[in-house]
């Protein structure tokens, strides 16, 4: 079964850090673009970062530029989202996705909750 599973979310204080994981099964993640999205309560889902299959950064939202980065470990078939300098407005459900481009995703994870609060 082809799927993506996120993990690593939780409650963190403002200024803190988290690393989210996106584990793929049933397909090889390094052939795909990887995107990370988030959806805050009452808001639409927004794309925040995307990297190509060759790990070239293709898109970074202004709201996370300089604070969030994507990486991947092909041996683990897993992608990561490093979240630094977290702010309360970063509170959202975070989703990873994989596909042939940053505008087309074939696989989606179920999401993981990140809450930034003191």
Structure description:
The protein is mostly beta strands. The chain is built from no helices and eleven strands. It has strands at residues 3-7, 10-12, 18-25, 33-39, 46-51, 57-60, 68-73, 78-83, 92-99, 107-108, 112-116. Strands 2, 4, 5, 6, 9, 10 and 11 form a seven-stranded mixed sheet that branches. A four-stranded antiparallel sheet has the order 1-3-8-7, with no helix packed on it. The chain is globular. The model has no long low-confidence stretch (mean pLDDT 95).
Poorly predicted residue ranges? none
Mean pLDDT across residues? 95
Main sheet record: 7 strands, mixed
Shape: globular
Helix amount: under 10%
Rg from alpha-carbon coordinates = 13 Å
Strand content: over 45%
Q: If helices are DSSP runs of H or I spanning 4 or more residues, what is the number of helices?
A: 0
Q: Which sequence of SSEs, written as H and E, runs from N to C?
A: EEEEEEEEEEE
Distance between the termini: 39 Å
Task: Count the beta strands.
Answer: 11
- Helix/strand class: mainly beta
């Amino acid at each position: 079964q082809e799927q993506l599973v996120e993990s690593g979310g939780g409650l963190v204080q403002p200024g803190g850090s988290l690393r989210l994981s996106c584990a793929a099964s049933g397909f090889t993640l390094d052939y795909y673009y990887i995107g990370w999205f988030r959806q805050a309560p009452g808001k639409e889902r927004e794309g925040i970062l995307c990297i190509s299959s060759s790990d070239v950064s293709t898109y970074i939202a202004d709201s996370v530029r300089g604070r969030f980065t994507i990486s991947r470990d092909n041996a683990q078939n897993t992608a990561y989202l490093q979240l630094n300098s977290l702010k309360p407005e970063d509170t959202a459900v975070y989703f990873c996705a994989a596909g042939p481009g940053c505008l087309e995703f074939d696989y989606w994870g179920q999401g993981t909750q990140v809450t930034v609060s003191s």
